[in-house]
Design goal:
The chain is an alpha/beta fold. Strand 6, helix 7 and strand 7 form a beta-alpha-beta unit. The strands form three sheets. Strands 2-9-8-7-6-3-4-5 form an eight-stranded mixed β-sheet, with helices on both faces. A three-stranded antiparallel β-sheet has the order 10-13-12. It has a two-stranded parallel sheet with strand order 1-11. It is built from 13 helices and 13 strands. Helix 2 packs across helix 10 and helix 6 packs parallel to helix 7.
Length: 401
């Protein structure tokens, strides 16, 4: 006997496209994240990810096939809490070549992307009521995570060469923070990179006031050469380096790592076990295969060149719309520009037209309104998007918004 298949219920028209903002609701982090990861929608704008066609699908498919032929019964196991050892060995080799003294068994663990790595660090080192320093502007997702944990979040102004060290010294003395989370190579959203002098001063302040530094290395592959890293200068004493491969290989892999002092790696691994046992082994095996085959570096070089060309073109096109970067980004996949109008209002009016924008208030721990806007450089290949953006900017500047 065969049961008739029941037809799936049609999706209501109101739920198609970008989620709608209710009257009076804020254009906040939750709305942006829901819009970025909404199933079955094709939207333009600031999803914070590179288009799939910019990545190397065949390289990943080849690695997947190779892993499928060689894994044997390992696909049926949980894997190792600290992470797939051959992958840790590959990561350690890369980091050691960049002067970060990471031993694969003593100083490294794998995580499900940079987001999980930072979450484990925060939950391991910080308690409700503690102060955590963040950059202003900085990565908006971490602000929400810290607030949810009952942490006192304090912003440190970000300058072109790194955090404002005078402000950092003053805030550290005032708040006695437990942790400072910062981008060093290719800062999100400004695209600026830490200078050696500022890095040295940040480490001195952290030592003087006894707080840890979580170094978010998400975008470092978009910078040519070896970046200035706190982890290299500090030798993994109070710095925890967090990196991953979602931006350059595939967001679906969710493979990252934490490099830190042995005692911290032990604590973080125990917390990882309590929160979700191990990370997914197949994804780690795929990333290991890509790294071991020597294809990754060539792929990153090609990807960086494409991103650089698109960013330069994007900045010129934004200038034509009278949107200018206070400091031109040195690298990376974003342009951080002053659009001349309230960017939250602009983003609110863009959403119903299918254009997702990331207004500047999301990147401020104080949620301060302003005219700064983060634009992803792949938008240069979306003529219709530029037409919508230009029309909205003209409308709001002319008072017709």
């Amino acid at each position: 006997f065969v049961s008739a298949r029941r037809a799936a219920q049609a999706v209501p028209r109101a739920s198609q496209g970008l989620p709608t903002l209710e009257q009076g609701a804020a254009f906040d982090t939750a709305f942006l994240l829901r819009s970025m990861f909404r199933e079955g929608t094709e939207h333009s704008g600031d999803a914070g990810m590179l288009p799939p066609e910019w990545l190397d699908q065949e390289m990943l498919a080849s690695a997947l096939r190779a892993v499928g032929r060689s894994t044997g019964t390992s696909l049926l196991t949980y894997g190792v809490p600290q992470g797939y050892l051959p992958l840790r060995q590959q990561i350690a080799s890369v980091l050691q070549a960049q002067d970060v003294p990471a031993h694969p068994e003593a100083h490294l663990m794998t995580v499900a992307g940079v987001t999980q790595g930072l979450d484990l660090i925060v939950r391991s080192l910080v308690r409700p009521g503690d102060t955590v320093l963040v950059e202003d502007p900085g990565w908006f997702l971490i602000f929400g995570r810290l607030n949810a944990l009952g942490v006192n979040v304090v912003g440190v102004p970000r300058l072109p060469g790194g955090p404002d060290v005078e402000a950092l010294e003053r805030l550290a003395r005032q708040h006695q923070p437990r942790l400072f989370i910062l981008n060093t190579a290719v800062h999100n959203p400004t695209g600026q990179t830490l200078s050696a002098g500022v890095a040295h001063e940040v480490l001195r302040i952290a030592e003087r006031h006894d707080f840890y530094l979580a170094e978010d290395d998400t975008y470092s592959d978009f910078l040519p050469g070896v970046p200035v890293r706190l982890a290299a200068m500090d030798r993994l004493q109070r710095v925890l380096l967090v990196g991953g491969y979602s931006k350059t290989l595939a967001g679906s892999l969710r493979v990252g790592y934490v490099a830190a002092h042995t005692d911290l790696i032990r604590r973080l691994t125990d917390l990882k076990l309590l929160g979700g046992l191990t990370t997914a082994l197949p994804g780690e095996q795929v990333v290991h295969r890509v790294l071991a085959d020597g294809q990754y570096r060539k792929h990153v070089d090609r990807l960086r060149e494409r991103v650089d060309r698109a960013r330069n073109r994007c900045l010129r096109m934004l200038e034509a719309l009278h949107c200018r970067a206070p400091h031109e980004p040195q690298a990376g996949m974003f342009a951080w520009v002053d659009c001349g109008v309230d960017s939250e209002v602009l983003a609110r009016h863009a959403a119903p037209q299918g254009l997702l924008l990331a207004p500047g208030l999301l990147f401020s721990p104080r949620q301060a309104a302003g005219s700064m806007l983060r634009i992803p450089v792949p938008m240069v290949e979306q003529p219709q998007t530029w037409k919508i953006l230009g029309h909205l900017l003209a409308q709001h500047r002319g008072g017709g918004g």
